[in-house]
Amino acid sequence: MKDANTAGTTAGRDLHALDSMNNKLAIQLADKILRKQKDLYCAKALKGLALLRSGKTAESETIMVEIMEAKPADDPTLQAMTICYREMQKPEMIPCIYEMALKQNPKNEELYSHLFMAYVRIGDYKKQQQVAMNLYKLFSKNPYYFWAVMSIVMQGIMASEEKLGKTMLFPLAEKMVEKFINEGKIEAEAEVHLYLMILEKLGCYEKALGVLRSDLAAKLISYMDEREEKEAIYLTKLCKWHEANIAFKKLILRRPDQWSYYQSYLTSAFSLIKQNWKPVDESEELPDYSLEMIDKFLASVVEAEQTKEKRSCRGPYLAQLELEKLCSQECIHCDSRQSSTSSVYLLIEYFKRFGDKHCCFWDLEPYLHLNLPEILDKEKFVEALRNALPSVSDEDPESSHVCKVLLWLSFTEVTRLMLRRMNIELISRHLGFHCSLSCDEKIALSKEYMKQHKDGLVYGQSLLPTELQYSDGFAQLASHLLLEVNYESGNTDMNWHLLIMLESALKASPSNHQLKLLLMKVYCSMGAVSPCLALFEGLEIKHIEQDVVGYTLTRYVEALGHFEAASSVYLTTLKFFYGNQKNTPEHIIAAYKYGSFEKIPEFIDLKRRLDLSLHFATVNYENMLLDVFTKANSLSDVQSHFDEKSLLDKCSVEKYWMKDLKDNRDLKILQTWDVPERQLSKEQQLRCEEQEVSWSVFKCLLFGLYS
Fold first, then answer.
1. Domain boundaries, the chain
2. How confident is the model at residue 512 (pLDDT cuts 50, 70, 90)?
3. What is any one of the record's Gene Ontology cellular component terms (predicted)?
């Protein structure tokens, strides 16, 4: 008894040592236990885990084989073995553990649950289905039954042939759920969600509407207006435009700032217009089937927003602009419409109401070129925006400095006025006003912008370091102008001015990632990687952002000769991707446990996108090449390195590279506010992706040559 208590205490210390990453101590404590109790397999498993974390993989595998041969069934040992196999990247061994334990205890609910989750980790949906049905037969609990249903759904989603899912698997899942509905056994919201998901996969939207209009819909309580929103979406799928239009009108009145409602409302309304739809019975509730009716409805929503005491929502105002855009695209016009609804008028009205918001430019960008084809129209439009500003002073009406309004405006009014001016400058740049400037004029304008930036810093002194300065946009505009001067003059004379400007602006606004990205761009153009490393670290890139913006550093660090730094950056990047492969199954397991079935395909799709990431492939091959070149002293060293590491197995060129790899990079991460003609086009992005893929294939072929 005393030995057992001592062993338990020592095992607890062993676990604490593992949690503290003190692997050496964990091995010593495990050995101490095993000297007294040779057959304590939990201690053996913990020792195997400590050895694995110490880099002694072969010894760890030997211990795990010994434990497997002993066929333990106690939960602590099984859990320790599960962790060990997970960290070995051998999740396929975990089901074997629990199958072995279940043979000794065939009616243990917890072991069955662990076995189901083990199959979830490796994506064996057929086995999941079998285990879940066994669980339900033994314990008659609804979640187990719906685990089986979801496993069938996943078989259909992942089937190599879409027809298999449509004709066999999804109908089977549908029948299984309907059996429960007919027997009155539906208990939870997750079960209704799964049924709707199956009907969506089958395209049975009429039946899905029936579910939403039945007693089952009462269980949909987690999300506001979920039933009404799904009903409107299903009506759209069925092309029942008049009913869909009415449904989305009601949703808009409930939540007037939900942009997706306006998009669907306009889609349904324009579909009715194209069909020349007319009501059969005027007494019924009518949809909006003409431009006049759409105008009237949107105007009523805007009017309702204006009467509210709180600040208006942006959605109704943007919906009016979206209507103008659709009319232009579809060439649908009506002479009876009021002139006050013209795009220019709506743009100006929107600016008057929301011009002091940072989002103003991005809200208006899709509509700025609608009715402004000529430069004269653009000049008049910008002048109208300037006239919408409060006048600065009678003595100097042309002044644009914030300090001129200090005496007669409050702090809030000053910052709002500054943001309005900044948005006007952003709009002017997007409309092409900077394109016609000479290099000297761009330099002069950049100085003016930096003056406005400096003036604006006075009003941001109380801001936290995590908040952006009100006038940061002026510094960004000035930087882009000087970058254009460099490009047009064919030299880098402006680089030092850029560095001074940007470092000064970043000091005042240390959390502005756009300033950091601009600085990285300038430093990399000068071959200075060390500052880039610090700036990249300051971006605090987390999780998925590694795949989206990591390329801003990885593409330069090795090319500019910083091999040690490159190795560190590559390993950090790869750690995220390999961590995703290990952790995503745990998210899927959690989704099964909590009934979030609709999230399971999303997690699997995310894992696939990251596994096939172009950035992942690029960094992986760069890291392998760097490892070879920095450690090999001769050709024979290179060849032996390839033989030892089996690198060729990792880079087969038999994959359909052009088809499979996913480019998840955000190539537009840097805000430029350029005219559309100068922005990165889809064709250019596709060409960039193709070149990156070809470069990866070339590196694979290099590996073959070296070996």
1. 434-540, 544-706
2. very high
3. NatB complex
